[in-house]
Each structure stands twice: as C-alpha cells, then as structure tokens.
Amino acid sequence: MVSKLKFDMPVVISHLNDHDSIKDEIMFHINNQTANRIYSEEHDDLDITRCDWNVSREIPRNWLEILRPSLTKELDIIYNELGYDKYDIKNIWFQQYATNGTHGWHVHVDCQWTNVYYVDMPDECPQTEIINPYNQKEIIKIDVKEGDILTFPSFVIHRAPVNTSTKTKTIISFNSDADISGGLYQ
After folding, report:
1. DSSP 29
2. pLDDT per position as a tens digit, 145-172
3. For the chain, counts of helices (H) and of strands (E)
4. Comparing C-alpha atoms, which of 39, 6, 30, 1 is closest to residue 134?
5. Contacts of 91 (CB under 8 A, 6+ apart)
6. Is 130 exposed, middle or buried (0-12, 13-18, 19+ CB in 10 A)?
7. Residues 6 or more apart whose Cβ sits within 8 Å of residue 29
8. Are 147 and 15 within 8 A, CB to CB?
9. How far apart, in whole angstroms, are the C-alpha atoms of residue 114 and residue 89?
C-alpha cells in the first residue's frame, strides 16, 4: 500500500481585469483564426469544435497579441502569490466547444501547471471538472465564469464535460512552468 501525504492542492481562480475591454477583439480574431476540429472516431469523449493546437506556429495568432499584456500582468500576480518569482508559458492555444463538444479526462504533461482562460463562457455551458487526486472518485466542478483564469497542477485529471447547450464556449488554454530565483528561500 502506498501511503499518501495529504495537503491542500493549489487551485487558483482569478479574474482577468481587462476581460471586458479585450473580449470582443479576442473573439473576433479567434473566430477568424485558422483552426481544426479535433475529435476521435474511437472515443466519444473528444470532440473539440475548433482549436489551433495543431496549427503551425508560423501562422500569426492576433488574439494572442491582444491578450498577452493583460495576461502577463495577471500571471505575475498569480505566480507571486503561489510563491514563485518567474514563470514560462510553454504552449498556448484556443479551444471552442459547440453543442456536443467535449474533451474527456486528461492531464497535461511536460509542464508544472495547467491554465485556462474562459474567454466566452455562456451560463448554460459546462464548467471544468477535476478528479480529486486524493480519492480518485470524487468529481469536483470548478466554479468558474467568463473572464476567469483557472490555474492548477498539470497532473490533476480534468475534463471539459459535454456541452449540451446551443451556445459555444471558448477558452484559451496554456501550459506553464514556475520557478524561484536561486537563493530566494535561504
């Protein structure tokens, strides 16, 4: 039997201060961005309506240029409050979930943190769910709303449940690492 040391797991929900002033422009560029549907014919728990994850990084992402200044300010605060003084965004992409869109249980690898910015989150659309890592049975619905940024350890199993709404949910997801400067805690 494996013994478990239990402690609170950092799950941060913050709100992007500039969300209301930049949302429409971000959505315009996302809706006009080269993107693909990502789905699995073998599994019914993967159907992302539009996503630029597998689009060449050579193609400009105008939505990112609009988001970057506001996101940087917010991430500076988030990671500082978590005890880190530097961070690095490893990948960043958008995902849109129309009716029946979903992304089943998964984790993010090769990073420390998973982050989700809820760009367009109609009330009828489902919120992100995580599995309690202490018992592997409890499903926790994360209470997020449009404009929020969710940050949690990348090993946490999570999903975007099936969107049964007729509205489309749009998120920007990114992987990140955080670190401290040498000697900070000496």
Report:
1. H
2. 999 999 999 999 999 999 999 999 999 9
3. 2, 11
4. 6
5. 53, 111, 174, 175
6. buried
7. 61, 62, 63, 66
8. yes
9. 10
Burial class (CB in 10 A: 0-12, 13-18, 19+), 150: buried
Tell me the three-class secondary structure of 171-186, residue by residue.
EEEEEEEEECCCCCCC
Report d(CA 142, CA 165) in Å as an integer. 18
pLDDT in tens, 89-139: 999 999 999 999 999 999 999 999 999 999 999 999 999 999 999 888 999
pLDDT of amino acid 6: 72
Q: By 3-state DSSP, what share of the chain in percent is helix, strand and coil, each rounded to 5?
A: 20, 35, 45
Q: Any idea which residue has 């979903």 for tokens?
A: 102
> Is residue 154 a contact partner of residue 114, using CB atoms and an 8 Å limit?
yes
Q: How far is CA 142 from the centre of its chain?
A: 12
C-alpha separations of 154 from 30, 54, 172 in Å: 25, 20, 15
Q: Are 158 and 139 in contact (CB under 8 A)?
A: no
> How confident is the model at residue 86, as a pLDDT?
93
Indicate the pairing of strand 158-160 with strand 12-15.
Answer: unpaired
pTM for the whole structure = 0.94
Q: Which two tokens stand for residue 159?
A: 């999903």
